[in-house]
Specification:
- A nine-stranded mixed beta sheet has the order 14-13-12-11-7-10-9-8-15, covered by helices on one side.
- It has 337 residues and is an alpha/beta fold.
- Helix 4 runs parallel beside helix 5 and helix 5 packs antiparallel against helix 10.
- 35% of the residues lie in helices and 25% in strands.
- It has two domains: 117 residues, Rossmann fold; 175 residues, Dihydrodipicolinate Reductase, domain 2.
- Bound molecules: nicotinamide-adenine-dinucleotide.
């Protein structure tokens, strides 16, 4: 086993705390070099739980990056602060693993990709759904070819999410905070890029959200397979699983990520309507375990990680093109951005 890389985690809030506890702390690849958060109580609690000495608990990220001797940073602060913290980490020569959404604007994301190249450091985005066993099972099933040509796909996701204060205040709320997973899944599952979108996002009166919590969009892909997407974060009633409900329509049958009678999973239906549940791919590194392993391997092997910053520009562009399409009431091609 190689020596553990030293990781500093920035952000130990609602999500970051769970990531630290369940993924970073038990990771065979990383040891904590320190923790950063504006909240001193959260810092103290993390220090006590993970055995991090007091002089490695920071409220100021610049001091942390200069002092802690870390190889890499995991950025789990709220989304509006991703850019400034990633920029500083790269300037200090650290590799960067950054939560979705990469940044709030394409200009900021491009700036970080350029800076990482200049500094010869990696940026990886935590598009953790790509590493979920179910999503990997779906990808393998789609590639199997038994049902002929893939014609089109449908994806939907409804859930009531009580947004954090920063989520209530941000633009493009559902697109950047939630659809980022599903739109990235389209690119991953179909091994393709999105080339154009016609979409609409909207809000409810008095929702309490500045940015729209509902979205409907049709995506054109390089593979020639259109994908139709409908999603809401104010969907009271039955909640969908986080990965969403998907139907892939082939010439001779359909593939589903859904509950077709034997629990949420991947199902294949042939032209005679025989429905079979796919057995899951074997993975001992589900979700963020897989993300951390890939990030560490990319650093050790001096190569780009899967879901590099550069790759993720195309997911971010698809999301921001959806917002532009809604504003302008027309189809937006991604190369316009
Ligand atoms: N991949 C996933 O499935 C998933 C799930 C949930 C959240 N997230 C992402 O995780 C990120 C964090 O979400 P959350 O729910 O934990 O948010 P949160 O508001 O609960 O916590 C954010 C933390 O960041 C800290 N922070 C903010 N600015 C800072 C700064 N300048 N310096 C140091 N600390 C700072 C805050 O003090 C807070 O503790 C978001 O980007 C969110 O989109 C990803």
């Amino acid at each position: 086993m190689s020596v553990k890389l030293k990781l500093i985690q920035a952000g130990i809030g609602g999500h970051g705390q769970g990531v630290a506890r369940h993924f970073v702390y038990p990771s065979p690849d990383f040891a904590f070099a320190g923790v950063i958060d504006l909240n001193p109580d959260a810092l103290r609690a993390a220090g006590a739980e993970f055995g991090i000495p007091e002089n490695r608990l920071y409220t100021d990220y610049r001091t942390a990056f200069a002092e802690a001797g870390a190889d890499a940073v995991l950025i789990e602060v709220y989304s509006p602060a991703h850019y400034e913290i990633a920029k500083s980490a790269l300037e200090h020569g650290l590799h960067v693993l950054i939560e979705k959404p990469f940044t709030l604007t394409l200009a900021d994301a491009r700036d970080l990709v350029d800076l990482a190249k200049k500094q010869e450091r990696n940026i990886m985005i935590n598009q953790n759904y790509r590493f979920n066993t179910l999503v990997m099972t779906l990808k393998r099933t789609l590639a199997n070819g038994a049902l002929g040509k893939l014609l089109f796909a449908e994806s939907r996701f409804f859930r009531y999410h009580d947004g954090k204060p920063y989520q209530r205040a941000m633009d493009n709320y559902i697109l950047l905070e939630m659809s980022v997973h599903h739109i990235d899944m389209i690119r991953f599952l179909l091994d393709t890029d999105i080339v154009a979108v016609n979409g609409r996002t909207w809000n409810d009166p008095d929702s309490g959200y500045q940015g729209d919590p509902h979205v409907q969009a049709a995506y054109d892909t390089e593979a020639g397979v259109p994908v139709f997407y409908l999603s809401s974060l104010l969907g009271q009633g039955v909640p969908d699983p986080w990965e969403g409900i998907w139907r892939f329509q082939f010439e001779k049958g359909s593939v589903h990520l859904d509950d077709r009678g034997d629990g949420y999973g991947v199902y294949v239906a042939d032209a005679e309507q025989n429905i079979v549940k796919a057995s899951p791919v074997a993975s001992d590194k589900d979700g963020i375990h897989g993300v951390l392993a890939e990030f560490a391997a990319s650093i050790r092997e001096r190569r780009q990680p899967a879901v590099s910053g550069e790759d993720n520009l195309r997911t971010l562009a698809a999301l921001l093109a959806t917002a532009q399409s809604s504003r302008e009431g027309r189809t937006v091609r991604l190369d316009e951005l």
